[in-house]
Design goal:
Elements: E1 8-9, H1 15-26, H2 30-35, H3 39-60, E2 62-65, E3 71-76, H4 85-90, H5 102-122, E4 127-135, H6 144-159, E5 162-167, H7 170-177, E6 181-185, E7 188-189, E8 194-195, E9 197-201
Parallel strand pairs: 4-5
Antiparallel strand pairs: 1-2, 2-3, 3-4, 5-9, 6-9, 7-8
């Protein structure tokens, strides 16, 4: 059976591989590059970010991949869209203070505060949050990204639940629009000149 015809939940044995895949996918993301301009140092920051996303989503959300791990999609379910302090501590988010210097931390937290504010404003009811999705560069253009979205989008449509995401890359908006997401905000973060596209899919 073709891997394109199925998706599977990420197993604990493949968590590390998923972190590496997402790290490569987000290494040159505009937000990551802005927070840590130094390319040599940025890998550690992106790796920490993706490890956090995978660990948190594995415990409190859903992670979909393909049998051969060509891509990964991390979701937080309705009612758990916002992270709690206890869960952040359990997934060791505090390690960020050992990775970034003061200026980098300032840019990072300004970005996070702005994103969280937009998140709360964009959709007030319980919803699915697409935290991260990435596809192995060697496997892009084969429909894997859409297959990874399908399980949750189908659930959301069946239950009449919204889906939410944000991206710092304008090119990503065209991909998400193909699957029913619409841009509800495309503002620039104050003091940062970083544009953020907020998208919502209403079933």
């Amino acid at each position: 059976m073709s891997t394109l015809s199925q998706t599977v939940s990420l197993s604990i044995d493949h968590k590390q591989a998923a972190v590496h895949l997402l790290t490569e996918a987000f290494l040159n993301d505009p937000m990551m590059s802005f927070v840590v301009p130094n390319e040599n140092k940025r890998y550690d920051f992106v790796y920490w970010s993706m490890k956090t996303v995978v660990n948190y989503s594995f415990l409190y959300g859903m992670i979909y991949t393909t049998p051969n791990l060509e891509g990964v999609a991390c979701w937080l379910p309705p009612g758990h869209e916002s992270m709690t302090f206890g869960r952040m501590f359990k997934t060791r988010m505090y390690e960020i203070f050992t990775i970034l210097n003061f200026s980098e931390l300032k840019r990072f937290f300004e970005n996070m505060r702005y994103i969280e504010s937009n998140h709360k404003h964009a959709v007030k009811e319980k919803h699915w949050y697409l935290w991260a999705i990435g596809v192995d560069p060697a496997c892009q253009g084969k429909g894997i990204g859409g297959k990874l979205l399908k399980p949750v989008l189908d659930k959301a449509s069946e239950n009449q639940t919204c889906c939410y995401l944000e991206t710092h890359n304008s090119k990503n908006t065209l991909f998400y629009e193909k699957y029913g997401f619409n841009i509800v905000s495309d503002k620039v973060i104050p003091k940062q000149k970083q544009q953020v596209w907020v998208m919502v899919r209403i079933p």
